[in-house]
Q: What sequence folds into this?
């Protein structure tokens, strides 16, 4: 499968705030290539367990290979974290001591052209985290009407030029289907005003984010998962969520506050924790990360 380099974001902060100890049961709801879990496992032994979930079967196999030395301490589940309660039931687990959600798209996805996540690499317009799911980026971009595309870009990408981009996409696809990441990126770049085409942030960034969120139903899944997570933690259990854009962070903050108002949790981090400058220098993709933590009462 080849070696995959992915640096776990805010690793030391996660290990600290999860309040790990031998014997604890921890869920890594977005295991990816296993960077966080590898260090979590070391801190819950002896007697602890880590349940590793991912909706991407390919990346889960990488984690399995990486974490194989830990044997039965780790359980790997191919599934969507929105089914968190059912997944744990299937593992004969009713309560856990900590849960981690790292909501970032991994380097594995961004650096695999055939997955279609990056506007910087030529590949098919896909963006499915679970390759067995039915709807891809191609389906949305080529089948939604202009108003639907505009709403998608505004709601999930906070794209100020959503109308211009939607018009251009519909116009272009009348000539030929939009099939690749390069095509989508170039159309978006042509649609925005000239002065915004050479900004520090690529003009297609928000469009790719919006389409990816819609394809994978990321915000709906996150809401379902967080509400379930609160209910399945033992008293003193910690829930840590790393988000990477304001839509995710807002949802996390609202659910945490609602749970606190109901007396279910206490908010451990009234303001989000950000990565240190040294980490951002080593791993620039961590720069937009925010960590929020609650504890079950």
A:
């Amino acid at each position: 499968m080849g070696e995959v380099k992915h640096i776990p974001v805010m690793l030391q902060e996660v290990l600290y705030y999860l309040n790990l100890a031998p014997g604890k049961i921890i869920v890594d709801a977005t295991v990816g290539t296993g960077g966080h879990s590898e260090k979590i496992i070391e801190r819950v032994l002896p007697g602890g367990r880590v349940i590793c979930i991912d909706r991407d079967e390919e990346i889960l196999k990488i984690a399995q290979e990486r974490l194989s030395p830990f044997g039965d301490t780790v359980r790997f589940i191919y599934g969507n974290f929105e089914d968190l309660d059912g997944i744990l039931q299937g593992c004969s687990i009713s309560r856990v001591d900590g849960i981690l959600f790292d909501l970032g798209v991994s380097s594995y996805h961004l650096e695999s052209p055939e997955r279609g996540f990056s506007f910087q690499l030529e590949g098919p317009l896909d963006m499915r985290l679970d390759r067995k799911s039915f709807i891809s980026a191609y389906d949305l971009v080529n089948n939604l009407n202009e108003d639907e595309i505009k709403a998608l870009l505004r709601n999930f990408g906070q794209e100020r030029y959503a109308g211009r981009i939607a018009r251009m996409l519909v116009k272009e696809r009348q000539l030929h289907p939009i099939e690749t990441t390069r095509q989508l990126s170039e159309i978006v770049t042509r649609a925005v005003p000239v002065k915004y085409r050479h900004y520090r942030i690529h003009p297609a960034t928000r469009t790719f984010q919006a389409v990816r969120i819609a394809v994978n139903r990321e915000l709906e899944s996150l809401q379902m998962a967080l509400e379930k997570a609160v209910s399945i933690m033992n008293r003193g259990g910690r829930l840590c969520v790393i988000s990477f854009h304001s839509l995710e962070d807002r949802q996390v903050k609202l659910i945490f506050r609602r749970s606190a108002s109901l007396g279910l949790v206490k908010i451990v981090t009234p303001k989000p924790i950000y990565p240190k400058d040294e980490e951002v220098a080593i791993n620039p993709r961590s720069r937009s990360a925010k960590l929020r933590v609650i504890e079950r009462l």
About this structure: The longest strand covers residues 233-243. The chain is about 45% helix and 15% strand. The beta strands are 25-28, 49-54, 74-78, 96-102, 233-243, 265-267, 290-296.
